[in-house]
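Technical annex, item 7. During the second reporting period the consortium partners agreed on a shared format for inverse folding records so that results from different sites could be compared directly. Each record opens with the tokenized structure and is followed by the designed sequence. A conforming record, contributed by the partner at site C, is shown below for reference.
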């Protein structure tokens, strides 16, 4: 199996980053404006919709201020059964985010696309927290025919 891995440092307290990863308003501010569900409890369901489709996630782990993990339960075939996680650490004035989208069966072309989009959305998360304005779908950078 192969994974998508990214790291970003955000100038903010870890609690602010954690809230942006676990609340519908926070998630809608950086990933997609069409976000619904409960991301602040284990077994919570989250629904994310984009112009090109969507994803349903189950929250499988929460460690306030330290870790968020989802399992993909519906969406593109390549995503189902994969896990999306964020490990957070306060380092001085920064929250360091170690992101993983793990469990891909093989590095198909769609994975390359998703890796680039995850990087863009992590920069949207950084922008939301540092400036108050993210670039969630449909306001994100479009990179190809999958958007």
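Designed sequence (site C submission):
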């Amino acid at each position: 199996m192969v994974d998508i891995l990214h790291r970003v440092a955000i100038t903010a307290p870890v609690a602010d980053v954690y809230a942006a990863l676990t609340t519908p308003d926070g998630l809608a501010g950086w990933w997609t404006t069409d976000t619904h569900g409960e991301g602040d409890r284990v077994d919570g369901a989250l629904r994310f919709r984009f112009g090109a489709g969507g994803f349903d996630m189950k929250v499988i782990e929460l460690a306030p201020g330290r870790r968020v993990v989802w399992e993909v339960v519906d969406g593109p075939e390549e995503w189902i059964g994969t896990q999306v996680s964020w490990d957070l650490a306060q380092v001085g004035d920064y929250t360091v985010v170690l992101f993983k989208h793990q469990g891909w069966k093989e590095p198909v072309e769609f994975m390359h696309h998703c890796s680039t989009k995850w990087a863009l959305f992590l920069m949207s998360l950084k922008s939301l927290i540092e400036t108050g304005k993210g670039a969630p779908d449909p306001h994100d950078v479009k990179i190809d025919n999958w958007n």
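Residues 59 and 139 are 26 Å apart (CA to CA). The beta strands are 2-11, 34-37, 45-50, 53-63, 67-74, 83-91, 94-104. All partners now use this format for quarterly exchanges.
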